[in-house]
Amino acid sequence: MRICDRWMQESTTDRRGRLHPPQCTTSREDRQIVRMAVTDRSVTSRTVAQHSESVTHHSMSARTIRRHLQQSGLSARYQLLGLPMTQNHRRFHRQWCDERKMWAAEWRVNGVKLSLLSSHASVCNTTMVGLEIGDTMEKGC
């Protein structure tokens, strides 16, 4: 390859190959990707990739979007993080949180005894009465 051809294609006259392939997005496109992730936290990396493809007219994988966001200190949502809570599970979770608020008022640590009214174990249909120092506890669920 002639030097002028190399300069036109690669913007360098160096004969050594590149360590990394050329970046497919510009810094402006990177900022737009980050802006989309910051303004709408519910957007997925696949959605950002599709939007970016429609704007820039070259394809970009969702993995590339996640990598760009990770380099910026952000993260994109995956399409499904978890199943939504059922009504029953939501009620048990709220009950557990309310009981936990009461724990702060009931806990007395005087070096001998730690007393608990109830715990998350009540959701699992088990009961806990109290703990003495040195006692062990078995998990119910």
TrEMBL record:
Domain of life: Eukaryota
UniProt GO MF annotations: DNA binding
Gene Ontology BP terms: DNA integration; DNA transposition
Pfam families from the UniProt entry: HTH_Tnp_Tc3_2
Domain Transposase Tc1-like: 30-100
Compositional bias per record (Basic and acidic residues), positions renumbered to this chain: 1-16
Region of interest (Disordered), ranges: 1-24
Protein name: Transposable element Tcb1 transposase
Source organism: Trichonephila clavipes (Golden silk orbweaver)
